[in-house]
Amino acid sequence: MSLQLKRIYVPASDDDGLRILVDRLWPRGVSKYDAALAEWMKDAAPSPELRTWFGHDPARWAEFCKRYRAELKNNPCVETLREMAARDKVTLVYGARDEQHNHALVLAEAVRG
User: Fold this and answer.
1) Which of 34, 51, 95, 113 is least surrounded by Cβ atoms within 10 Å, i.e. has the fewest?
2) What is the pLDDT of residue 1?
């Protein structure tokens, strides 16, 4: 399985493979051309309620991970991403500034199983 993570504000490269945006909202200041996406999987992102509750507050990180993992248990996007990563190199693209506390990390963990 070939799966990696990358902020959408880092320029796309040939090494990215299939670039999949996993945010529910389109990142500010990024054109669709520059994003160079293969797909936009809005439904892979946390629910709006969970995203709002988390608010990118590192103090809520552990609880956010627990709640988001629960959401991902019944999310068909996880299996779709797993299948894609088994066939091709996949880069999960996200917009969050914090590279240590963001939903893409939790999603990647779920995809890897």
Assistant:
1) 113
2) 80
Q: Where are the beta strands (DSSP E) in 11-112?
A: 18-21, 39-40, 90-94
As a whole number, the mean pLDDT across the chain is 96
If one counts every other C-beta atom within 10 angstroms of the C-beta of residue 70, the result is 10
Q: What's the pLDDT tens digit per position in 41-59?
A: 999 999 999 999 999 999 9
Residue 43 pairs in a beta bridge with: none
CA-CA distance, 50 to 6, in Å (whole number)?
Answer: 22
User: Please, what's the b/e burial string for 74-97 (b: 16 or more CB within 10 A of its CB; e: otherwise)?
Assistant: ebebbebbbebbeeeebbbbbbbe
DSSP-derived secondary structure for 43-70: GGSPPHHHHHHHTT-GGGHHHHHHHHHH
pTM above 0.85, yes or no: yes
